[in-house]
Design brief:
Strand order of the largest sheet of chain B: 1-2
Shape of chain A: globular
Keywords (chain A): Cell membrane, Membrane, Transmembrane, Transmembrane helix
Number of helices of chain A: 14
Oligomer: heterodimer
Structural class of chain B: mainly alpha
GO cellular component, one term (chain A): plasma membrane
Largest sheet of chain A: 2 strands, antiparallel
CATH class of chain B: Mainly Alpha
GO molecular function (chain A): branched-chain amino acid transmembrane transporter activity
Membrane topology (chain A): Multi-pass membrane protein
CATH topology of chain B: ABC transporter involved in vitamin B12 uptake, BtuC
InterPro entries (chain A): ABC_transp_permease (IPR001851), LivM-like (IPR043428)
Strand order of the largest sheet of chain A: 1-2
Helix content of chain A: over 70%
Helix content of chain B: over 70%
Radius of gyration of chain B: 19 Å
Distance between the termini of chain B: 53 Å
Number of helices of chain B: 11
Radius of gyration of chain A: 21 Å
Distance between the termini of chain A: 30 Å
Strand content of chain B: under 5%
Number of strands of chain B: 2
Amino acid sequence: MSRLLPARPVPRTLVVALLGALAAVAGTFLLDPYRNYQLALVAAFLCATAGLTVLVGLSGQLSLGHSALMAAGGYGYALTSNAVPDAPAVVRFVVALVGAAVLSGAVGLLLGLAGARLHGPYLAGLTLTLVVALPAIATTVPGLGGDQGVRVGLEPVPDALDRLVALEQWQAWVAILVTSAVLAALHVVVRGRTGLRWRAVRDDETAAALAGVAPGRLKVLAFVVSSVAAGLGGAVLCFVTQSVTPGGYGLATSLLLLVAVVVGGLGSLAGAAVGAALVVLLPWLVGTLVDALPVPSELAQRLDGNLALLVFGLLLVVLMAAAPTGVVGAWRTARARRAARRRAGPGGTHPSAPGPSAPAREDVTAGSPLSGTESEA
Amino acid sequence: MDRFLFLVGTGVARGTVTALFALSLVLIWRAARIVNFAAGAMAVVTAYVAVGVAHATGGWWWGALAGVVAGGLLGWLVERGVMRFATTPLGGVILAIGLVMVLQSALGILVGPQYVPVAPPVSDRPWTVAGVPLGSPYDVLTVAVALGLMLGLRLLFTRTTLGLQLRASAFAPEVSRLLGVRVARMRTVAWVLASAVAALAALLLLPTELGLNPHATDVLFVLAFTVAVVGGLDSPGGALVAGLGVGVLMSLVTGYLGASATPIAVLALLVVVLLVRPQGLVAGVEARRA
């Protein structure tokens, strides 16, 4: 399989992203409209979790405010889209996406300049403050519409496809397209020179600085890249739900995003996909379960929403205590260990070479800021 | 002018409480190099204990006592049960966030989202001097309790053997361990102290707020974080000075621009401080890194 793909990294990433997007688009034909709607939500959240996992796993910084950055993208999308009502649909959508990227990138740049250059918990506290202040910002800044938020018009299915697909499926297609572009871009950055420098700064800022890498600038860049990814996710979410409200991007959503990237494994884009699916599907599953249980309606109301958070919180604490590299990380470690055992088996060629070998070298989670052991040389 | 004086008076009272809460963050930061992002959620849990006991016994002071004891217990549980798994600063923050989710959602399930009104133990009607409302008996009580507690902590840290051990294990854990200080135990003691302090601070603040709700301390936490950062994160004195300054500033913002402006003002203040003077007002000399 891998021989069929281009050998150079960037074209290879693009081809893989295109194939993945095509497979996902083909998959939408198997799903009913509600499942397609959920798929679109997963795609939107995947942009945000992918951005966050790159920020935390590669640059070693923590953001507790990615839901607010999604909201910034959503507002950017909605305001830009409403500003050009007469443009053709495709132009309007692309311009609105650019608006989302610009607004979330600007917010990210401001916060990044303030918090990301510093060592310590400053960025986490700053982004937490942003989330807490989001409802107040929405009511105070004119044009953001207060608690009601901003609505955008529905982008209907193009006429050429009208016979073929339903609205939800069309929205899922658009979401998949944007998300695969975001993932491909992130992947290229992560595997390239910038990703390498991020890891150098994460592992030892002083050594990186001595090697001619500017730690402050790179950390700010990581936060801006991550913000733009989250903002595009917010834009997709706004496109699917046709509105952006501060209530949809509260502290709970922000913390769920963090759980998603920790569960998936910090720094791993595949893990971000697992996490995004979990963020969308687990609350829905828990809600369905609560509805099915014979409990009084008042208790059911309290369980709704809170129970999913409780499960996620417990999951986060247990995972951080037991498997800080997440699901994908644990799987990769197990695989690397099995491979090492196989090699060391008959003859035992390199009994003195410990630790992860070839597969782990490719692994961006190796030497993650949480695993304690910095195995990446 | 009347309004200005009144707002300054309220700001001093609220600023002292915020400083007390920030002090709890500083205590844990010094001992464990972790910002306790779960401080707000932990304080809400203890506030529910306190309000429950106060309702059952009819005495606010019994409630306060129960809240402080519950705070100490919770601090012990959290440090021993959860936080000791934190091997890196990032891991510490993530564990604390997990704890926030568990505590707040468990409270949401147990007590629901509605606000429980909390009555102050003494009158909160302001005295008027020559027609100018200045401060209420409750403000005076708040400032007195907060300052008394800070003084007590200062004496504990500077005049007792326990305080010496706490300072030693925060300053140089390895050397302290060699000299026979039980550093891990000192870290636990710091968590217990800090959580008890935070419990009292949240309890003092509640009567001036809307009431008790699982998210009642969210804004208090970000305010206290800002205060701790402005004060230098490492300095109890800096926390007090910054707390008073930020408290008065926020009181003026709330008074003249409305309550919804407060979180935005906190955000703006934090951004400006981090851009201009990230090491805080009272900063030690940074260790040489290269």
